Amino acid sequence: MADQARLFRIKSSQLPDAVGITMSFEHEEKSRDIVPDSLPKDSLVRYRRLGVQTNSDGIITVGQRMQEWMKRTWNQTEFILLPNSHPFIKLIVASFHSEDHSGVDTTLAKLRSRYWIPGVRRIIKLVKKRCIICRKREKKIVGQQMGMLPIERLQPAPAFYYCAVDLFGPFMIRDTVKKTNTW
């Protein structure tokens, strides 16, 4: 994985171009058996409910069935469909996660604003689990331990043989006529 990460080092400004190039390559690699409308056979079957189509750049997108809703809510008409098994996806998820080290749902919402990655929640959880900054933020703090018991409490004794009273005060009490101290 370290070798793969070294190969994919990019700047955040290069991310959209890198995703497009990588996904075009990935889709070309997987689409050797082409169906008539130039989509891989498995994408038609597996994602047909999402409205799979190929855009003008040759990238597989989803959202054909819900374009109006996507335009109103996400200000887009399609999402890029990315395969969850590609090593580049972990880098994209890590990039979105490292912006603010937020939770799984926030990272998922950021990803879904541009990409559609099936099963990405599991990948986000994995990235968050391996993130050192998140581990430091969410570590469990050791609670206070109780002090040692006095020897009197450890030995058997009759009821009320040892008795303790907590005292605090004096408190100044103001009556309608006079002030008094009380314990």
Automatic annotation (TrEMBL):
<dbReference type="Pfam" id="PF17921">
    <property type="entry name" value="Integrase_H2C2"/>
</dbReference>
<protein>
    <recommendedName>
        <fullName>Integrase zinc-binding domain-containing protein</fullName>
    </recommendedName>
</protein>
<dbReference type="InterPro" id="IPR041588">
    <property type="entry name" value="Integrase_H2C2"/>
</dbReference>
<feature type="domain" description="Integrase zinc-binding">
    <location>
        <begin position="88"/>
        <end position="139"/>
    </location>
</feature>
